[in-house]
C-alpha cells in the first residue's frame, strides 16, 4: 500500500513522491516534485501547469481556434500546450500569435495573466527594436 508522501527512486534515479492528482484525485508518482496532476489529466485538453517562476501553461483542445499556434513540442510537454499569457493575448486580438511574437507581463508577475497586464512584442532582426511593443 502506497501512501501520500511516500517516496522512491525511479529507474532513472529521479526522486519520486506519491501524490494525489489535483484534478481527478487519483494517486500518481510525481517526479522531482514537478507535477501536481497525473499523466492522464496532464494529457487532457484544459489541463494547466504552473512552473517554478509562476508562469502558467494550458493544454488546448484541437478544436480550439487558437490550437494552431501551439508548437508541436512546447517545453517538452507535448502537443497542444501554450502559455496562458500567449493564449490570453490571442483571445484579446482574436487571432493566433506567430512565432516572432511574444508576450510580456507588465508587472513582471508571471502568474498575472489579466489581459490588461499583458503586452505583445515582436522579435526583429535588429535587437535595438526588440523592446518596442506592438
Ligand atoms: Zn488526474
Keywords:
3-stranded antiparallel β-sheet, 134 residues, 2 helices, binds zinc ion, alpha+beta, elongated
Structure description:
Helix content is 10%, strand content 25%. With 134 residues, the protein is α+β, with helices and mostly antiparallel strands. The protein has two domains: 1-44, no CATH class; 48-134, no CATH class. The strands form three sheets. It has a three-stranded antiparallel beta sheet, with no helix packed on it. Strand 4 and strand 5 (56-59) form a beta hairpin. It is elongated, with a radius of gyration of 18 Å. The structure holds zinc ion. Residues 21, 23-24, 26, 37-38, 40-41 line the site of zinc ion (ZN). The site of zinc ion (ZN) has 8 residues, from helix 1.
Radius of gyration: 18 Å
The helix fraction, in percent, is 10-25%
Rounded mean pLDDT score: 88
Instruction: Tell me the β content.
Output: 25-35%
Task: Identify the overall geometry.
Answer: elongated
What order do the strands of the largest sheet run in, or round the barrel if closed?
A: 1-2-3
Summarize the structure.
By secondary structure, the protein is an alpha+beta fold. It is 10% helix and 25% strand. The chain folds into two domains: 1-44, no CATH class; 48-134, no CATH class.
